[in-house]
Amino acid sequence: MARLVVVSNRLADPRKAAAGGLAVALGEALNQSGGLWFGWSGEVVEDAARAPDDGLQVQPAGRVTLATVDLTKSDHDAYYLGYSNRVLWPVFHYRLDLADFDAGFLSGYRRVNKMFARHLMELLRPDDIVWIHDYHLIPLADELRALGSRHRIGFFLHIPLPPPLVLAALPGHEWLIRALFAYDVVGFQSQADVSHFERFVMNEAGAEKLASDRFRCYDRSVVARAFPIGIDVDEFQRLGQMREAREMYETMREQYSRRELLVGIDRLDYSKGLPQRLRAFRNLLQDYPDTRDRATLIQIASPTREDVRAYTTIRRELEGLCGHINGNYGEIDWMPVRYINRTLPRRKLPGLCRASRVALVTPLRDGMNLVAKEYVAAQDPADPGVLVLSRFAGAAEQMREALLVNPYDTQGTARAIHQALKMPLEERQRRHAALLAGIRAQDVHWWRRSFLAALGDEVSAPSEESYEPAEEAR
Ligand code: ADQ
After folding, report:
1. 300 Cα–ligand 1 center, Å
2. Backbone angles phi, psi at 464, to 5 degrees
3. Residue 242 C-beta-side C-alpha neighbours within 13 Å
4. Quick one: what percent of the chain has pLDDT higher than 90?
């Protein structure tokens, strides 16, 4: 069996439960074949202290080998904070207004990808299968090919790919798309993303369509397909049976026995539509008086990327809105919104989800959104809660039985939340059963197997093609 090599910006120790479904699923795949996981250590060192080997550390974690390198401060600023999180993240989430096209960012991004490729190449065996993850590492296969790699290499984009005209606003976008052709298989979260890729390569890059999911361009061919990521339903349900989740559930049920609980669980990111969600909740209280003194929203928003300015702005906006709603609608014994700016320990998540009558998953744009799936997995099938889901989350393509909303339409969203709160038991059960069957059928193991099967099917043909590295971005 070929060895699997996973590459992602950050690693998680697959032996730790706190690592979450994705790390567990990748860890499981790595464990089966005895694999290697490569990425950034999370350490930032002063430029002057850069080690000749970039702090390369290779250590065993069960059957998996973890290999990491450190970043210097200037590389971290340009590659991670800069190009990844101030250019690619906003543009790929359709937020051109928040992008900062500083030329220095791109060269740092290229430099780090080159450095990763150099170390990884040293660690690779000839028949390894390499699976690279996410927007931080788009050009990594191109850099590996330039060093002579003929491995089977797949790429999975966890975030959306925007439509051609949005992508075209990104300086150097041709180079990025061309770099995708260094892969054998490119996986996206949704059909919408695949169609954006197809339209871009066909109309802007003059690609030829060889089969329904195979495109030829720049003398290379690539398979591009949707592999919607799932969760580990069994693992999440097991977590729900454990003490911490049960205690969380009991506490919430007790404290809110007279109320109806709504929950939002997100990273505090502008793509998650948090201000719009709070405005929709305000509309709910305003337009539907029966919800006053009853509906309580618990919004957990974990801090993230706080050294990027757009994130401090959104945090301030959110705090202002929460204060405003509580000030206007709150009573001595009732706070409409409980806003918690922390990460909730993973072990408590299923308990909070199960205790909540409604989940608000209303991103403005999201690759997939796993919280939507976790909420469904955590419900009691006999008395399940209702998922209110943005049509702009990748998950909406699969989760048609949720109440789908347009998060920009705060009145429409308020109407859907009210419908969710009033939904009869039989309808809740019917919708929940269909949603649960869906997330079970396409869980994280299905996702991993389908991707690796597609990569495995791409036998030697693509690697036989001659390879010209992508031109330097201008
Ligand atoms: P994220 O943007 O981080 O991931 P999401 O899928 O919603 O988004 O969450 C990932 C995990 O983080 C989930 O397991 C969730 O429970 C956990 N999480 C989020 N907020 C939390 C909080 N406040 N406290 C505790 N846990 C929290 C990116 C893409 C998504 C895509 C995933 C996976 O942006 O679109 O679904 O990768 O591909």
Report:
1. 12
2. -75, -20
3. 13
4. 85
